[in-house]
Amino acid sequence: MKTLASFLIRHATGRDAPRIAGIQVRSCQAACKGLVPETKLRQLDASRRAVEWKDVLGTPCEQTILVAMKGTRMAGFCTFSQSQDPDAGPTTAEIGSFFVDPLAWGRGAGHELAEEALDQAKRRGYSRVTQWVIGANDRAKRFCESIGFSPDGVEKTEDISGCPVRELRYVRAL
After folding, report:
1. What is the distance between the alpha carbons of residues 118 and 112, in angstroms, rounded to a whole number?
2. In 3-state terms, what secondary structure has residue 33?
3. Based on CB atoms within 10 Å of each CB, which residue in 57, 74, 100, 169 is the most buried?
4. pLDDT tens string 126-153
């Protein structure tokens, strides 16, 4: 647990599942507007995702899940673990999920979450971290670049709510 300038960054617990799910849905709906059909975004279901997150948080795994808190309000969360990319070695971590509530965008939660995740990854022996970003999401790309990540030229297509979306891999040395 680490308190930075304005957010408490701590490990997630099972009780956090509903708030994590809500942030994930609201952030996806805001960030993917115009990239994914509106009907698909409206179908995102926080209560269903909360059940999934409760299962994830209740099962021992190699994934680290951090949350950013301001008082009793959760502002965002991120996950990281060893990268599963085929070209990644054992010292490459991957930020798998990184979501900040749209109401908290631009207020520092993302930077503080990233700082703690990168610090923890380095302490665990990782020498580099990757993160996949939707290619058309300029806000996310600018954020990654602001915390020292840069694209490495690797791309893939992922399915988001039934829609193929091009993603770019960003990388940062630790």
Report:
1. 10
2. strand
3. 100
4. 999 999 999 999 999 999 999 999 999 9
* R_g of the chain, CA atoms, integer Å: 15
Res 5 pLDDT > 60: no
CA distances from 95 to 42, 43, 53, 87 (A): 26, 25, 16, 16
As for how many domains the chain has, the answer is 1
User: CB–CB of 91/71 below 8 Å?
Assistant: no
CATH of the domain at 92: 3.40.630.30
Structure token digits, residue 125 = 């022996």
In this predicted model, what pLDDT tens digit does every residue of 39-89 receive, in sequence order? 888 888 898 989 999 999 988 878 999 999 999 999 999 999 999 999 999
Classify residue 123 by its DSSP letter. Answer: H
* Residue 150 near residue 140, CB atoms below 8 Å: no
Residues 6+ apart with CB under 8 A from 79: 63, 64, 65, 66, 95, 96, 97, 98
Per the structure, the complete domain to which residue 47 belongs is given by: 2-173
What size, in residues, is the chain?
174
